[in-house]
Amino acid sequence: MKIHQIVFKEMLQRGNQIMFSLLAITLGIAVIVGIKNITIFSEKAVSRELDTLGANILILPKSASVQDYYSADFQDADIPEVYVDTLVASGLQGLDNLSPKLSLPVEVSGQKTILTGILPMNEFKSKDVWQGELGIFSRPEGCGTTPTIPGLGASSSKTLVRKRVVDDLSANSILAGHDIASTLNLKEQGSVQIMGQIFKVEAVLPATGTVDDNRIFAHLHSVQKLCNKPGAINVVEVVGCCSEISKGLVAKINKLLPDAKVVTITQIVQTQVNTNRIMNKLSLAMLIIIAIISIASISNYMFANVYERRREIGIYMAMGSKPSWIVEVFMLKALYIGLIGGILGYVIGTTMALILGPKLINIPVLPVPILGVYAVAISLAISLGASILPVIQATKVDPFVIMQED
Amino acid sequence: MIKAHNISKKFRTRHSRVDALKNVSLHIIKGDFVSITGPSGSGKSTLLLTLGGMSAPHEGKIMWNEESVYDWGLRKRAEWRAKMVGFMFQTFNLIPYLTVFENVAIAERLSGKKTIDKNKILKILDRMKLSDRLEHLPRELSVGQQQRVAMARALIKDPQLILADEPTGNLDPKAADGILDMLKEINGEGKTVVLITHDPRTASIAKRNIHIEEGQVAS
Predict the structure, then answer these.
(1) 3-state DSSP call for residue A56?
(2) Measured between alpha carbons, how far is A74 from A65 in angstroms, rounded to an integer?
(3) Is residue B68 within 8 Å of residue B80, measured between CB atoms?
(4) Could you tell me which CATH class the domain B31-58+76-217 is placed in?
(5) Is the Cβ pair B106, A1 closer than 8 Å?
(6) Does the CB of B34 have a partner CB in chain A at under 8 Å?
């Protein structure tokens, strides 16, 4: 005759009564798990969306004006290209892509435009110092690991637009923005003369609706040579992982490059920070409310259970049970309620999140196993905590008074 | 074996204070069979529960082989009850959600044994003529059968002292006779029995009788 058998039999006998307490804690845990699950994937979705916006951090000369974020790289002042080496070698988490640029105004076939020098990815890979785990193309931990929505993956022709880098760009090739290509009638594999040098049109970029549509992109080192500024750049565009930005990536870059100005799209980052904060506060508020309701429900049930079983407690005492045994019987029951409530709550909450997530906020939601551990731990804490006072009362049942009730 | 030395016990009700026991002294020797009689409210059950270590007297001592039961801690007193004392009650007080077998097994479990002796339980239930009721719940038994389960529960730990509070009070004459016969039988095996009753016929089976009136030993 094991103690858990006694507890189970008693629970089964009073199934209807226990059902309400179990329902309270199960639904409470389910709501918390559901909200938390959706919050986690909502945060990931926001991060993913922000990541696809393109560069969200600019490293500029100290004197640069940033009236217009998207044309802030068009500056007279410059910074050394070696800053890129410094950034890559720093091992900072959250630098998804770096794109050093040098921009200058040019006139092509009588049309004023901007020539922007960019560094293709194969240039990064050719430098030993940028290889291995420090390399920016080995995606940093916690960044860029968000699930992708099918169909949103950038195709190779859009990599410059989305990720600010291209795989390869020879010294005599250019990429033409959508609008300037249209104005100058530039065709892929055609040619164009810029500052007296002939360039091959490698590709015409898709329209982006940004200043990039009116730019011509060439190899950074070609542009440096054209304007006689070797080793100089105007800007380093950084595709920073938004979650890392919210954790202080900008400040870290500032510390690393004290002579540069580091700016970010603060509103966007702040939006994510605020969204995360609101959702976390909402989860916490729900947790507190649900914990109070569950504690009240379980405590009420346990007090009633102790009262109903006071004669039984008296019998156990008459048979020679110690107070610790009475504690064990009731706390084991509380443990089972917590365990069942936690597991059921996790299953129901996760199912709710999987069904409602895509319908309500249009994001794919997957189960988060660690939430199961938290659900059971919270449920156990609530159930055991709510049972402490009733159990103390159970140990204080006076068998003499109970037996006198015969 | 067990002695009550000038014990007094008081109750406080909503309206007044009641002296349930007043300077009661008695001595019960090993192998004794004592009936305690008296009218309702005379203090019989109070005396029984006080003897069984369930409630401390306000004055006086209960001595078990020269040791004061209420000077022991709660734990030691519980262990003593678990091993030495078997209770029987008028309303049987079986655990409603446990089977006949389990109701007896739980008493053995509480007596401190790590594993229960199934054969011992089956043997005692056979003696109580309950072999065919092992898996029945108390509500599925007759009152006579329920009291026999309570007796098996009291005896399974092989106690030295049986304290029976009106064990035949709810039984028909035939079932009552069966219980009384068994009490006589176990007393014959050397167990000490204290039987509370208000029925003179029931009391007559004991070796001696103590009569209580208004919380005092009358004779």
Answers:
(1) coil
(2) 10
(3) no
(4) alpha beta
(5) yes
(6) no
